[in-house]
Each structure stands twice: as structure tokens, then as C-alpha cells.
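Write out the 3D structure for:
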Amino acid sequence: MEDGICTITAATPEDLPPAATLLLERFPEERIFAFFAPMGAGKTTFIKALCHCLHVTTQVVSPTFALVNEYDSPQGSVYHFDFYRLKNAAEAYDIGTDEYLASGCYCFLEWPQVMQNLLPGRYVAVDITVDADSGARHINARIVNQNPHR
């Protein structure tokens, strides 16, 4: 692991909880995690593992139709977004995404491409790819610092 970069391979679903723990340990001060991955790569499943690590006790489900789900954890609220159905950043802004992102709470964003200009100056970009042969998930996370003077 280089500074600000984390690479994890999850060969089986059982590897996801330790992968989630590693990701949170690698970025202990970060609260905004944007997940970039194709359909079916396991974004929601990995976010479930992250929420489990944060001791969320309620069921974690994809917020595809609600756009955002809020979960309680000992660290405070955890917000889980799914922007797949949005057409543009204005729709994300209209649901108050900027306020959620400024809350200091954990925010996990699926399909952030549509609202990328609303992302804060610093966040963790999480790219998930699937090995076509083995089905393993390759998780590459890095800090994106759009304002290096922060």
C-alpha cells in the first residue's frame, strides 16, 4: 500500500468483511467514499460489509428508489446513496446531497459519476473490478484531493 492508496482482492464473498475492515483502517479520517464500478460488481454488497464494520444493526439495502438510506451506528449516521437513476447533478443537489456530504458522517455513494461535480474537495474513490475468470473483486481505493491546499 502506497500512501493514500489501498489495493485489496476479495476472492470470495467471505473476503469482503476483512476487506471492508482494511479499507476503513486505511482511511480512518475519511468519511466520503465514492464507488465506481459496473453493474453487478458488488458495490452494494461491499457497502453492506462496510456498514457491518461500523456496527450498523439495521438491514442495509440498496437505496435505488429512495436515493439515500440512513443507518445508525455508534459513530453516528451512515448515509448510503444510489445515484443510478438520476439524470444530472441538479437532481442530486435537489435531495440535499451537499448537506449530507458536509455532515461529517460516513457517506457511501454508488454511481457518483452523475454528480461528480458535487463531490467535496477530498474523498476516497473506490474502484471495483471483477476478474472475468475467477469472479474475484479487485478493490482499488485512493484519496482524491481536488483542493490540495486543504
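Residues 16-26 form the longest helix (11 residues).
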